[in-house]
Amino acid sequence: MVGRLYCGIDLHKKFSFVCVMNDKGEIKDERKLWHDGFTFKEYFKSRETMECVVEPVESWGWVTDYLEETGHKVHLANTYKVRLIAESRMKTDRVDAKVLADLLRAGYLPEGYVAPVGLRDRRAYLRYRIMLARERARLKVHVKRLLMLENVSEPVYKDTFGKKGMEWLKGLKLREVNNRIKNERIEGIERYNVLINKMESEIRSSSNRDERAKLLKTIPGIGPLTAEVIMAEVGEMGRFRTSKHFASYTGLVSSQRSSGGKTHYGRITKSGSKYLRWLFVEAAQRAKRNDTNLKRFFDRIAYKKGRGVAIVALARKLAEICWCVAIYEESYNTDKVCRQVG
Predict the structure, then answer these.
(1) DSSP alpha helix (H) spans, 210-331
(2) Based on the number of CB atoms within 10 Å of its own CB, is 38 exposed (0-12), middle (13-18) or buried (19 or more)?
(3) Which terminus of the chain is more solvent-facing, meaning fewer CB atoms within 10 Å of its CB: N or C?
(4) Gap between the Cα atoms of 278 and 276, Å rounded
């Protein structure tokens, strides 16, 4: 009788290295599988059911989808915790695949969240919206730089790239080459405006239909986009046992090192989703202006450690509040925050 088989997959862009071992730790097969053609797919289609563990790189989605379609059980390794791979002195594809399989076999594999296809597509859509805004911001900076090069002062508008500001920019005459660049940049900004406005309308409509998003939007600083990104990046908030665990997932907690009975705190870990981390920091900038108790929390830390540290601390506090709102299914209550932050 054949025992359970474990397969470690060290995933790369064009190929994967796999290591298959039995429940006794004996290696039954090792090989490199190229992703082009049918080499990879035919291999797993022809194998008996295995428990497979994948190292999550950018292209892990199609691999886990195919493995599940062919009847294999899939695990996603948490790369931040698989120290044996990250710190191994002898790091090769063969070693990585073997370590992954061995950790899974022994029950010591720190696992990540295998998001379903629909959720991954939602993430891609929302990340695209963020990317468009960043690209538009880059064009705006370039236009401002052209004005600075020719010592042109901006008129006093609420937004230089608003309706009146854009009319002024279009009518502004610069040197020939700078004028051409300015006009092409403005055309690019207008194209991005159309795409972003369309997506924002869709996101706003989606957040108004979703009860979880409605609850999250009651938190100061959390708008439709932030609420939707939180739900897409997290998936199931219940997989985090406490608000502290969720804050840790965002990478907004301080790194910690203990030695000789002393504990040293360093910079934030920056683990987890960079999109969540960025949006929580942006939300903190708005929240401190809209809620008295959160402003008090920010001011207390800013007085001791500076505004930069304080804004990150407030972002972490917002992450913890989001967990509470989502888990207990209650709207934001500033009085509860008051009791918590003092």
Answers:
(1) 211-216, 224-234, 243-249, 274-290, 292-305, 307-328
(2) exposed
(3) N
(4) 6
What is the tens place of the pLDDT at every residue in 143-163? 999 999 999 998 888 899 999
What's residue 342's pLDDT? Answer: 40
Tell me how crowded residue 228 is: count the other CB atoms within 10 A of its CB.
25
Residue carrying structure tokens 């279009």: 170
CA 109 vs CA 253, 272, 338: distances in Å: 23, 18, 40
Are 17 and 93 a contacting pair, CB within 8 Å? yes
Q: Which residues pair with 254 in a beta bridge?
A: 268
Distance CA 64, CA 72 (A): 9
CB-based contacts of 45: which residues, under 8 Å, 6+ apart? 70
Strands 15-22 and 262-268: unpaired
Separation CA 47–CA 328 (nearest Å): 44
Which whole-number Å values give the CA distances from 155 to 143, 166, 184, 333, in the listed order?
Answer: 14, 11, 21, 41
Q: In this structure, are strands 51-54 and 5-11 parallel, antiparallel, or unpaired? A: parallel
Q: Give the CA angle between residues 66, 72, 77 to the nearest 5°.
A: 85
The reported pTM is 0.85
What's the DSSP call for residue 237?
A: G
Give the integer Cα–Cα distance in Å for 227 and 321.
13
Give yes or no for a contact between 291 and 341, defined as CB atoms under 8 angstroms apart.
no
- Examine the pLDDT at 330 and tell me if it is beyond 60: yes
Contacts of 180 (CB under 8 A, 6+ apart): none
Residues pairing with 76 in the sheet: 54
User: CB neighbours of 136 closer than 8 A, spacing ≥ 6?
Assistant: 188, 189, 192, 193, 196
Q: What is the Cα 31 distance to its own chain's centre?
A: 32
The amino acid occupying position 341 is V
Residue whose token pair is 């907004």? 252
Contacts of 239 (CB under 8 A, 6+ apart): 113
- Long-range contacts formed by 63-70: CB under 8 A, 24+ apart: 63/9, 63/11, 63/16, 64/114, 65/117, 66/41, 70/44, 70/45
